[in-house]
Specification:
Chain lengths: 293, 216
Amino acid sequence: MNIQVTRAGPLATIQDLGRFGHLEHGISASGPMDRNAFLRAGEAVGSCATSGIEFTQAGLDFIVQGGDIKAAFFGGDFSLFINKESKKWNGDYSLINGDEVFIKPGEWGNYGYVRFNAEIGVKKILNSRATNMIVGLGGYNGRALQMGDKIDLLPAKKIKTNPIKQIDYQDNIFRFMWGIHAERFSQKTRNELIEKPFFISSQLDRMGVRLLDRSNVFANEKILSLVSDPIVCGDIQILGDGSAIVLMRDHQPTGGYPRIGTIISSDIDRFAQMRANSKIYFKPISIENIKEV
Amino acid sequence: MKNTTQIIPLGDEALLVRFAFELDDSANQKVIEFANFLKTQDLPYVKEIAASLVSVLVRYDNKKINFFNLSGLLRLALSKPIKTLKEKSQTHILEVNFDGEDLPQVAQLVGLSISEFIKQHNSKPLRVLTTGFAPGFVYCGMHKKGLFVDRREQVRKSVAAGTVIFAAGQSAITATSIPTGWHVIGRTDFINLDISKNPPTKIKAGDYISFVSEKS
């Protein structure tokens, strides 16, 4: 069986948790921008399938063909319609042959997910189905989904996953650890990173989110180019012109711009959902206070 | 001269073992040797080890091991004598067509004729300092002091896969089309990226590249 895409918003891609282990080959892991929502959708369908579809604010429409399937819809806010009937977003539904699913823009958030109790029938590349559009590999021929694409769904075993904790998307304070170049910034700049608000700019994608620094925290920082070091998702990088970018799932593997901090892994999902013009604050956390262990 | 190796957190899911703050040949060799050594070790909950120019990235599962315990294991690994892994390094012979658009300018900058520049450029195999800046991309060096040039002022928006670029005492080879501020000196048919294979690249850090002029 399959689904056929009848309308694709920009940059809808097939993802799984990511293609890890290839930074030395210049390939970053990709994976869902909001991993928490992706995992909650997986929990709701209760299968061993590892893949799903990520879509952006504009959503995605598709039609179910050739069988019945369970589908779960999670993420930022969207309006969901099945056969033109409005359904609750963040839920799971049984779909039958011919069902038409419309996912329309909602009030907040940038990314939504649909996952099935079935694996998406695309070939694994380097052990992952995640789409990496920088390299043009994985997912659906290495590209974003388009109208007319037929996506095969392959039966996957039923399993029960550990419950995934829901996160508070209203929280606009993001915890970060001081970064590998933090000491190169002045004390004033470091204080202001914590005290001043920042705003999300309209330049945001899977590679990075550019911040608007309306308080000019970084305007006077002049740090010369540094030796390249590895980058991780969540790094807050300051470019030569003083602009701040948070690097996201499709980040470049290494970089020589100074990084003042790194947003911690448990806060990066809700950060990815912040729309342009959202006001945000940063709050430092030390490695001693990372409570995951 | 700092020779203390640092272990510093890079977010809450990775750490860096940093051998130097600036590109330095001996630190770079230590990075490659240490990363190769770590890959042979059975480190618990480590998801990825990636060598960079002067540091090694270690990504870990923070639900299974914390930064301090992992740092302890790495300190222990650092204290052991690490065998030079020279026997594992390969030499790749790379045929290059030296016809890059910046070649005349580069030759002029170093005060050589084009043919003399090519001769000196190819005079000895260069060590691969690091990989991973872009898919399949390799940096190699160092050239002798006389061949140092700065980057171009203008960044080229895109150079093709297989372009040989030159700056800062190094030569680099692209495997995808990328923007670059380095000087374009030549092209090769060899593309260090094949995503149908795992690993997807042939040239690794610590290997040697012997540049030869393509016979026309």
